[in-house]
Structures are given as C-alpha cells and as structure tokens.
Amino acid sequence: MGRKSRKKGPSSYQNLTIIGLSSLGYGIGKTDEGKVVFVEHAAPNDVVDVRVVGRKKRFLIGKIENLRQKSPKRVNSVCAHAGICGGCKWQHIDYQEQLYWKLIQVKDAFEKIGKILFEFDAYDIIPSEDVLVYRNKMDFSFTDNKWLTEKEMGEEVHSQNGIGLHIPGRFDKVLHIDQCWLQNDYQNQIRAFIFEFAVSRSLSFFNLKTQDGLFRSMILRNNTKEQWMLILVVTNKFDKKLPELIDKLAIEFEKLRSIYLIENTKANDSIFDLSPDLVYGEELITENLGGLTFQIRPKSFFQVNIPQAEQLFKTALAMVDWSCVNLAYDIYCGTGTITLLAAKMCNKVVGIESVQQAIHDAENNAKINQMDNVFFECGEARKVLTDEFALKYPKPDLIITDPPRAGMHPNVIKVIKELKPQQLLYISCNPATQARDINLMLDLYSIKKIRGVDMFPQTPHIENITYLQLK
C-alpha cells in the first residue's frame, strides 16, 4: 500500500498584511485560510509578497520577496547588516513602535499564559536613553567559511575568513561584520585590526566541522570610563605569532587596559569551565552602578546596558516597602548587583547563586564596597533552601528573584510559598515564564505593581518587573 501524499500548500503568498510582531521578532501575517505566517524583517502594516521557507504544524515561516506597501512604522536601518545578522532584528521599526509591541508581549504573556487580568492602559515601558551603541559587551566568532550574502554570491569572493555574529537559527554560520552599532566604535576598530593582522600573517580562522584553526572567538568589554578588555579565545595559546599581535594591540589601542587569552580545544564554545590567562595590562576593569563599584573580569556576568540597568534596579527597589523589611533573600543573585543595592535598604540580604565564579565575584564586590550585611550561598536555589538553611537564616520579609529565561524551578516556587515572605519582587527577561510562575503563586500573592524596562533596543527582548504582596 502506497504512502498517502500530503499537500504542502502554496510556496508563496501575495498581498499579505503584517498585523503584529512576535516575541521572537518576526512579523505576523495570516493567509486567507487563516494560516499564521511568521515573516522575517517585516514591520506592522507592511503589505508583502512572501516566499515560504519553513513549514510547521501550526504556522509557516516566510521571507519577503516584494514589499508592496511600506508601513508608516518602517524606518531605514542604520546598519548595513540589518535583516541578515541576528543582533538587531527590529532596527527597521520605529522605536516607539518597538516599545508598543514589547508592551503587547507582556500583556499577552500575563493574559494568555498567566491567566492574569492585565490593566493595559495603566502600564508603560521605560524607554532606553540610547537606542544604538548601548552595549558594554559583545561576543564575536571567527570562521573560515563565512556566510555569503545574496550580493556576495554574485561576486568573486577571495577569502572565506570572517569575524562576526551568527545568522539567526544557524549556529554553524557566521556573518562577517564590518561595523556593529551595538557597542562603541572602538570595538569595530579593535576587531578590524585583529582581522587584518591574522590575514596578513596567514593565521588560520576556526572551522566548526574540522575543529581546526587558531582564532576561535573574541569578547570585547568596556565600561563608562572608556576602559576596554579583550578576551581572545584560541586553540593554541602558545602560538608564536600571538605575542606580536598582543604587543601591537597594546601600542595601537591606548584604551585597551586588559588582554586575556583563553585556550579552547573542546567541541563546544563555552568558556566558563576554562581559565583566562592575563597576557597584558590590568586584571580587571570596574563599573559604577547605583553608587556602588563592581569589578568586571573576563567571565563576570554584568548588565550590558548600564543606564538602563540603573533604571531597572531603581524602579524595582522603589516598589518595595522597606520599612517592613529586615531580611531579604536574593535568589539567582549572579554577581550580587541587586543584592548589594538592596543591602543599602535593609539590615541583611542573603544572595543565592549556582555559579561558583559569580559567587566569588559577588563576595569581592561586597568587600570593595565595604558592605558587611550581605551573605552569599553557592548552589541551586531548590537545593540550597533547606531546613538547615532555615536554621542559619531566619524567614525573609522579602524575596527578590531574577531567574534565567527558563524561569524558576517548580521546587523554588514551592519553597517560596512555604516561606511566605510578605513581599516578592520578580524581575524577568522572559515575560512568558514570569507569567507562568506568578500564576502558580496567585493563591497566596496579589500583584500590586508591574513595569517594563527596555534594556535591549532594536530587539524583541524586554525586562519586566512584577511586585507582589502576600494576601
């Protein structure tokens, strides 16, 4: 008996109106048959002809073949790589429109996932002071098989080497970046210098399939005082050409305070289990936030948009009634940023974090700020919050939680409900998992305040703060 054929449907659609934006950054259209189409690089109210490039059970993925009617919300992108690179998915959309759809993202998450009535008119998002050049950290990958744009495919390409960012959804494809608008232009200059040096010395770029090539990736960090740190990830830190590169970088770039080498011969790109070697300059750079000083090392987690981080923490902490707080827990505390800021407001704060290096940084940050009312415990919150922990630290009056995108583990939610702190402050980079978690606590807690802060202009990402009180 032969297999039953399945009709795939049309390979393209004409005159598709974009009716919204998804949380992943795609434009949303609907066919006459009611099929949802996620369209790359589309803006709300665009009318487009779309070529189908992907099919899922519940939706299609499309690319614009013809922009029939340009949306009034569509703007000219500053970056030459916009629409190809995954760094700025919304650079073609007016910034106020970006904020509106981030608000819609939060509203939909709370209403559809959290089953929580959302007072749309009473909510707004704190905009970013800078919509370009706002990041203080960027990661770039080297490749000997760069992604070719449609224009390059029609031209003679002399070299496949590149340094850049991954194509969305393609971990194995890297787009060479000439100028990135997310970080200060000094980054572009350093990156271009390294590229030219490597090419001129015939040094090899990394090949993901064969796992060969000297230069693998690079990280550039800077602070508001314009001090820079470079971390070069290579497959052989003893290569005889590297000292020459390091010497030339130190001479050419006076703002470059630190250069580190990390040797990575693993099959994956993670560097958190590897040791950085300082090969030039100072061990760290520092940043001021909320009147406190924080140390930044090669692998330190730190907020990448400092002015907006100030807004985020200021807004979040202002929601709390500190007159009722003696002891606070900061779950998922990272390097202790909000832990230390909260410690200025109450008698004692306990930070909990699973990454040992982050705990080490947090303890250093407490020390340099001469704060002796903060304490840190290393481990997963669901394992740390035991009966023994309860004997060591009394019941908290406030719990602060800022989990990763996946949200809180169900056991952590269970422990929070058992502890029953009077106040709960939930900061999240993913409104969907935040709404899911809060829904599980609404039998004990009431939402009192909610506010979004735009940390990442030109992207669909939004930080959302929710303040709850025990019923």
What's the short version?
This protein is of the alpha/beta class and 471 residues long. It has eleven helices and 22 strands.
Question: Please, how many domains?
Answer: 3
Largest sheet: 8 strands, mixed
List the total number of helices.
11
Low-confidence stretches: 1-6
Helix content: 10-25%
Rounded to an integer, what's the Rg over CA atoms? Answer: 24 Å
User: Beta-strand level of the residues, as a percent range?
Assistant: 25-35%
Q: Quick one: CATH class of the largest domain?
A: Alpha Beta
Explain what this protein looks like in three dimensions:
The protein has 471 residues and is of the alpha/beta class. Helix 1 packs parallel to helix 11 (431-439). The chain contains eleven helices and 22 strands. The model is unreliable at 1-6 (pLDDT under 50). Strands 6-21-22-20-19-16-17-18 form an eight-stranded mixed β-sheet, with helices on both faces. Strands 9-8-7-10-11-12-13 form a seven-stranded mixed β-sheet, with helices on one face. It folds into three domains: 12-69, Nucleic acid-binding proteins (OB fold (Dihydrolipoamide Acetyltransferase, E2P)), CATH 2.40.50.140; 137-285, OB fold (Dihydrolipoamide Acetyltransferase, E2P) (Beta Barrel), CATH 2.40.50.1070; 292-470, 3-Layer(aba) Sandwich (Rossmann fold), CATH 3.40.50. The radius of gyration is 24 Å and the shape is globular. It is 24% helix and 29% strand. The longest helix is centred in the N-terminal third of the chain and has 19 residues, at 95-113.
